[in-house]
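Hi F.,

I've been meaning to write this up properly since the lab meeting, where we talked about keeping a consistent format for the predictions we share between groups. The idea is simple: the sequence comes first, exactly as it goes in, then the C-alpha cells exactly as they come out, then a line or two of notes. No screenshots and no reformatting. I'm using this chain as the first example so we have something concrete to point to.
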Amino acid sequence: MSFTVAIDGPAAAGKGTLARALAHYFGFAYLDTGLLYRAVGAGVLAGGDPVAVAQTLDPSDLENEALRTQAVAEAASQVAVIAEVRAALVVFQREFARRDGGAVLDGRDIGTVICPQADVKLFVTASPETRAERRFLELDAKGVVTDRAAILAEVRARDARDQGRAEAPLVAAEDATEIDTTDLTAEEAVMQAITIVAERRRTS
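Output, unedited:
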C-alpha cells in the first residue's frame, strides 16, 4: 500500500533532515529529489547537455559525493529552470512516490507538481539568515573557506530564482502544513512532522 509524504521548502530549511527522519521512523523509502537536479547539474559541469543528461539519468548517478559541492548546487538551481529537464525527471519521481510501503520525497515542487495528491504535504521554511548560518557551519565543518555574507547573498539569490521561475516555482501547496524551523531544534521539528504524519495515517 502506498503512502506519500511530500516535503517542500527552500535550501537549508531542514527538509532533508525531516525527510530522512520520517522515512526512518515510519519505514518509508526516501528520495532527495534535489539530487536529481544536482546530478544533472554535475553532468552539465562535465560538458553534457542538460536535457540529454536528465533523460539518461541513472539511480547510481545519485550516489556521487561530489553532488554535495556548492558549484554543483548552483548548477542544479540553474538547470532546474529548464522545462525539458523538469519534464524528464517527473516520471522518475512519480513512480518512486507510488511504491508500496510508503515514500517520502523532498524538493521544491513535490506537493504542487510532482505529487499533488500526496497523503501529507509539508512546507519547511526558515529565515534566510538562519539558513545561511546553517550552510556556513556545514561548509566550515568540511573545511571549506567561505564567509557568511557571501552565503547569505547566495541563499537570497537562489530563493529569488526558485520562487520566480515560470516552471514549477517554489511555493507552498494550498493544503500543505508549514513547519518554520527558524527557532526550532532539529528534534523539535522532527517531532512536529512525525505527529502530523502519524495523525494522517491514523485517519486515512
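Notes:
The chain has one domain: 4-203.
Residues 4-203 form a domain with the Rossmann fold fold (CATH 3.40.50.300).

If this format works for you, I'll send the rest the same way.

G.
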